[in-house]
Fold this protein.
Amino acid sequence: MAALVALSPICHTPVSFGQTIDVQRGVSLFRRACIGCHDAGGNIIQPGATLFTKDLQRNGVDTEEEIYRVTYYGKGRMPGFGENCTPRGQCTFGARLQEEEIKLLAKFVKLQADQGWPNVETEED
């Protein structure tokens, strides 16, 4: 089965086959762990903490490294998802993510933020 990732017309960055696979995996991880609060890059819990570039910059989380750190350890009302996240009260009570998954999520979120959160759809042939 082949997977196809289609980005909206506002996506101007050419995407190679390797990047397509990473985007698809990023979409899957994002849907599994993040979409409940951050659908389409927004934030239903804290409106000023969206995943759009202006809010990421204002909150000091506008690099892949900072997005990784916040995703791993949490910040404010956002729980951490890292396997070794501490303290316990700051971390998700749900399934934890592996380090490589969080790295991929950080890369995906940064890419989406840079592109203004275009629509991302996955289809299986």
User: Anything to note?
Assistant: Residues 3-8+17-39+50-124 form a domain with the Cytochrome Bc1 Complex; Chain D, domain 2 fold (CATH 1.10.760.10).
